[in-house]
């Protein structure tokens, strides 16, 4: 029987865990870890995630940290029916794993660096902005090519590999002013899966302190702050 607590904040990595839990229909308690207040670095939390980041879960005494590990743990333990995953050992599972790893090792780190240098940095670097924007866009092209030949990333079924990539596409327009329509198959996949109930519920966990408009306003101010700096000027 599941006894799950999710430690999270309203970010793409956090949503990967909450959407997976919602799609599986699992009961869980959500605890907000406010990363703006550095709550993720408190001693008690480092015992759950030694890397001091969200998300993490406790399932009874079992800790699981890293969003990709959480998705694999939850589906391997609680998705015997294969609602949002393929069974280990099958060719489809290997395809799912490959796309999931591309997200955790590729799009996640690249797009979050693009966010950092475009909105949150203390120094302006045109080189870094260009490098991480280009890499993010290149990865969207890779997804677009795959989605031209397959309805979902791992095959005919919506899986955790789709959830992992999807959450990053949802923030790209607001934070990076990237228009997903540039990639028609990716855009069509986004429109299709954003209608899912589990997706909608998971994107609401934890209840955000800021509304969508306030977030848009904050990131706009962040971009303007970076734009006002001279290249590589540090404001530390
Ligand atoms: N590789 C990690 C990344 C986790 C991560 O970077 N989480 C961010 C929020 S999206 C965070 O907690 N940042 C605050 C920090 O690292 O101190 C995962 O996939 O779970």
Note down, in words, how this protein is organized.
- With about 240 residues, the protein is of the alpha+beta class.
- It has two domains: about 80 residues, Glutaredoxin; about 110 residues, Glutathione S-transferase Yfyf (Class Pi), Chain A, domain 2.
- Helix 1 links the parallel strand 1 and strand 2.
- The structure holds glutathione.
- Glutathione binds next to helix 3 and helix 4.
Produce the secondary structure layout.
Elements: E1 4-8, H1 12-24, E2 28-32, H2 43-46, E3 56-59, E4 62-65, H3 67-78, H4 91-120, H5 126-149, H6 160-176, H7 184-193, H8 197-202, H9 212-227
Helix pairs in contact: 1-3, 1-6, 4-5, 4-6, 4-9, 5-7
The site of glutathione (GSH) has 13 residues, from helix 3 and helix 4.
Short description, anyone?
The chain is α+β, with helices and mostly antiparallel strands and about 240 residues long.
- Provide the spatial order of strands within the biggest beta sheet: 2-1-3-4
Continuous helix count:
9
Main sheet record: 4 strands, mixed
As for the CATH topology of the largest domain, it is Glutathione S-transferase Yfyf (Class Pi), Chain A, domain 2
Uncertain runs with pLDDT below 50, 5 residues or more? none
Number of domains: 2
Overall spatial form: globular
Provide the CATH top-level class of the largest domain.
Answer: Mainly Alpha
Computed structural class: alpha+beta
| Overall pLDDT | 95
Spell the H/E element sequence: EHEHEEHHHHHHH
Backbone CA Rg: 18 Å
Domain GST C-terminal: 89-210
InterPro entries: Glutathione-S-Trfase_C-like, Glutathione-S-Trfase_C_sf, Glutathione_S-Trfase, Glutathione_S-Trfase_N, GST_C, Thioredoxin-like_sf
Protein name: Glutathione S-transferase
Domain GST N-terminal: 1-82
